[in-house]
Amino acid sequence: MPRNLLLAVRQAFDPAFRAVALKTVAVSAGLFVLLTISLGWALDALTLFGIAWLDWTIKAVAGAGAIVVGIMAFPLVATVVVGLFLEEIADAVDARHYPDKPAAAGQSVASSLASTVRLVLVAAILNVLVLPLYLVPGLNVFVFYGLNGYLLGREYFELVALRRIEPRAARLLRGRSRWRVFFGGILITVLFSIPVINWLMPIIATAFMVHEFDALERRQVEA
118: how many CB neighbours lie within 10 A of its CB? Predict the structure, then answer.
């Protein structure tokens, strides 16, 4: 697994990835700016008590909370972005590392986006449900990385797997290697938490799971 992640990180800076990297960063940045402006407008319009100092305090606390929520939500928002460029990323990985494999049938942009949007909705609901646990020091780290590691590992793996195999086969393959996919998802979530690096994570996570899928597919054939 570490080797596959290293391969993905190295290729993220290849010329073949440059165009898709720029597009991914541009879309992610656009969404982030739009979200920031929307939150700023909403908070600026917030007047609950008509008492200046009290309303200012509430806005300050809400603003800090919005930043925290934004950081936690970024991996999921960025996952939607990857649905736009999934095939370009995965095809570049295949071309460099697996040139002997037949071309993948691939998924349409609509299918990829539908899958990622569904994941984001589920993840948003689950993260809201466990929000009280995020207030418990120590436990919040395990809950955040455990929950989002599971969700991101599952989603990125299945997005990549569905390029080559049917949905049922993809779920079975993931089920047989659920712990490996889970820990892969945790690695993705950790890297999504690092500023600057997280802008490239949709690309790195997709490339990483292309390598993971190939490794698990070969292991299944050899078994």
Answer: 11
Q: Report the distance separating Cα 205 and Cα 107, nearest Å.
A: 17
Q: Are 122 and 151 in contact (CB under 8 A)?
A: yes
Q: Which are the contacts of 8, defined by CB distance < 8 A and separation ≥ 6?
A: 93, 204, 205, 207, 208, 210, 211
Q: What is the pTM of this model?
A: 0.78
Mean pLDDT of the chain: 80
Quickly count: other Cβ atoms within 10 Å of residue 4's Cβ: 20
- Measured from the Cβ of residue 186, the count of other Cβ atoms closer than 10 Å reads 16
Report the pLDDT averaged over residues 185-198.
84
- The residue among 73, 61, 59, 60 whose CA lies nearest residue 31 is 73
What is the spatial distance between Cα 92 and Cα 98, in angstroms, rounded to a whole number? 10
Contact 57, 87 (CB under 8 A): no
pLDDT in tens, 36-93: 677 666 666 666 666 666 666 766 766 666 666 666 666 667 667 777 778 888 888 9
Which helix or strand (DSSP H or E) is residue 113 part of? helix 109-129
Closest CA to 171 of 161, 180, 179: 161
